[in-house]
Amino acid sequence: MRRRTATKRSAYTLMELSLVCALLVVVGSMSFPTILEMYGRQRVDAGTDAVRGAWALAKSRAIEEGRAYRFAVIPGRSAFRIAPDLDSYWTDSGPGEDAEGHGLVKEGTLPHGVLFAGADGSTPSMGMNPSGTATGVHTPATQFTSVAVFNPDGTSRENVEITFHLKNTRARVLRLRAMTGAVSVKPHGVS
Fold first, then answer.
1. How far is it, in rounded angstroms, from Cα 191 to Cα 182?
2. Which residues of 13-41 are buried (b: 16+ CB within 10 A; e: fewer)?
3. pTM of the model as a whole
4. Are strands 115-116 and 160-166 parallel, antiparallel or unpaired?
């Protein structure tokens, strides 16, 4: 009598391949929203970090130069600006002659899609240009709204709260305490 010897399989069946592909599609579709949320949170956090850095720069320049520096934003957009707190730096004609010497003027934007809240704290219109301005185009100084002024002693004139929005991501609030200069970040809607 002859015995049959077991043969090794050298390939997968079409059914096995179909099941593995279906499983990958299901797992991928379940994890995709979570991945998008994590990426969105990272962009909002990068935006808060950019503003914190601008605040630190404005504060250090105010102390170093012995004059106040202003931080301003365009509500509903992503553009921000720091410059000395003199009206001549906040007109479209430029600073002109400055008795104290030319101060630092720095403009920046938040990461793509991240926007500052409107003046009333409302969510910006998603129909707006998310970058705030076209690439390479200078934003007129008169479009900015003053948010914080850093005094020469390093304090801020007022308590400040800025809300950062990104579509399909929970908003974040950045707070600045006037007298201490302490900065904190919290999710929008949390006291």
1. 16
2. eeeeeeeeeeeeeeeeeeeeeeeeeeebe
3. 0.74
4. antiparallel
Which regions of 74-133 does DSSP assign to beta strands (E)?
79-84, 106-109, 115-116
Give me the CATH code for the 37-187 domain, please. Answer: 3.55.40.10
- Closest C-alpha among 169, 174, 172, 168 to residue 189: 172
Per-residue pLDDT of the chain (191 residues; tens, 9 = 90+): 666 666 676 788 999 999 999 999 999 888 888 887 888 889 999 999 999 999 999 999 999 999 999 999 999 899 999 999 988 888 876 666 666 678 888 999 999 999 998 655 555 443 334 444 444 456 777 889 999 999 999 899 999 999 999 988 888 999 999 888 888 888 877 66
Residues 141 and 89: beta-carbon distance below 8 Å: yes
Report how far residue 8's alpha carbon sits from residue 60's, in angstroms, rounded to the nearest whole number: 73
Task: Give the largest CA-CA distance in the chain.
Answer: 111
